[in-house]
Amino acid sequence: MTSRPFIVVGIDVGGPRKGFHAVALSDGQYFAKHSHSVASAIASWCQQLGAQAVGIEAPCRWSSTGRARSAERALASEGIFSFATPSCKQAQCRPFYRWMLNGAEMFRLIELNYPLFDGSTALSSSVCFETFPQAVACALAGEIVSAKRKSVVRRDLLHQVGIDTEALTNIDTIDAALCALTAHYFLLGNIKTYGDATEGFIVVPAKAMTIRPGSDQAN
């Protein structure tokens, strides 16, 4: 018997004007995309697709100290830099952090049906987690890659693992696809994590894996 499709979703998070861009992979191949300004619409789309894992490009938890979280410090020690996540109170006081507030709302809604990854090695039937496209790109390349040329570099990395990028028409959908690829790898157990359960884990691939259409890579 043929098992049901192995569907995962990646979500790129923007501010109020840009909103959310999501890409779904089925058995590791491009399947669909969706964009919306409202988090609940994207969360509903994930459920409608029957996604098993959702990777989100936004902080899953606020900083407990107001300074960079342990996951961000760990990535920085490897030469991968990101914006430091503030406390919730700090984020509410500065317009720059509106995209992080959007991300927090997305996690709040997604977690109603997809429990947040807590560092356990046990694979849940449904799970969400935080990821970071630049860190994903570096993991796939096996080296630090240029963030200035991110559109070209990240698209090429998706090509290299076997994902058709024709429908990925901008950097938001490319980044969403990288998040979805990480969700695919997550369910295969091919991940590396940074951080802790208190302030949240950032998940990236452990290594690049070529995806062949029709191959049985899922459990």
Descriptive overview:
With 219 residues, the chain is α/β, with parallel strands linked by helices. It has a single domain, classed as 2-Layer Sandwich (Nucleotidyltransferase, domain 5), CATH 3.30.420. The protein is built from 7 helices and 7 strands. Helix 1 runs parallel beside helix 4, helix 5 packs across helix 6 and helix 6 runs parallel beside helix 7.
Notable traits:
single chain, 219 residues, Nucleotidyltransferase, domain 5, five-stranded mixed beta sheet, two-stranded antiparallel ribbon, 7 helices, 7 strands
Q: Work out the count of structural domains.
A: 1
Q: What low-confidence regions span 5 or more consecutive residues with pLDDT below 50?
A: none
Q: How confident is the prediction overall: mean pLDDT?
A: 93
Structural class: alpha/beta
Strand residues, percent? 15-25%
The CATH homologous superfamily is named Ribonuclease H-like superfamily/Ribonuclease H
> Percent helix among the residues?
25-40%
Looking at the structure, the CATH topology is Nucleotidyltransferase, domain 5
N-to-C CA distance: 14 Å
So how many helices?
7
Write out the strand line-up for the largest beta sheet, numbering strands in chain order. Answer: 3-2-1-4-5
CA radius of gyration is: 16 Å
Give the topology string: H per helix, E per strand. Answer: EEEHEHHHEHHHEE
Most strands sheet: 5 strands, mixed
Report the top-level CATH class.
Answer: Alpha Beta
